[in-house]
Each structure stands twice: as C-alpha cells, then as structure tokens.
Amino acid sequence: MAEIVRVGITFPRKLLAEFDTLITNMGYTSRSKAIHDTIRTFVNKQTWLAAREGAMVGSITMLYNHEMRELESDLTDAQHHFEAIICASMHVHLSKGKCLETIAVKGEVHEIKRLVEKLKARRGVEEVKLNVFSI
Question: Which CATH class name applies to 13-50?
C-alpha cells in the first residue's frame, strides 16, 4: 500500500456542505476518497496540459466578483497583454457582484497556460476553467 499522509485543509462551510451532498449522492462513503479522486483528476489534467506543445484552440471561462477593487481593470490589462492569442470574449453579468467571462483563444499552448495562470492568480477570481483542442 502507498504511504498515506494526513493533511488538514480549510473550506468555506457552504462549499463543504455542497461537496458532501454531491459525494453522498454519487455513492461515496468517504470524504477522503472523494477528495483523493478529485485531486487525481486535477493532477492528470495538469500533467496532460504540461506535456502538450504546439497550437491549440479553446476557451477560458472564469467566474469572478466584479466588486473586488481593481479586479476588472487587472483582468482587462492581462487580456491586452495576451491579445495575440485572444480571438474574442464575452462578458455576462450574473448578479450584482458576480460576472462570467468566456475568452476564445488560439495559439501556442504555453501562452494559453500563461494567460490562465495570470487570471487564476487574481484575488476575486473564483474559478477558471480551460478547455482546449489540438488543431
């Protein structure tokens, strides 16, 4: 059996409750197993992306709090820095404080990943998802 390491992590109460409900409905009997599977999926996707080279096309979708001070300006600046790979973007106001933005990208995978990392790093960006396809 592989060596097991115990770690402690913190979650917002609502997120953990949602996670627990989902994993129970999926038949998990252990929160640890569900978190293990989730992390394995994340590691596999990141490993796959790290190994990719060449031109790709795809979309970056992010959910963020537009009331966060200077966030929208920072996100716009980041997009201008990567204008060579950005084809289009769509901005949707979801509520008073939440926005959804989808950015269509086409270019070298390492540049797309750099843009995703820059967007994810900003405080107030709640989630970023990347979907890419080889061309």
Answer: mainly alpha
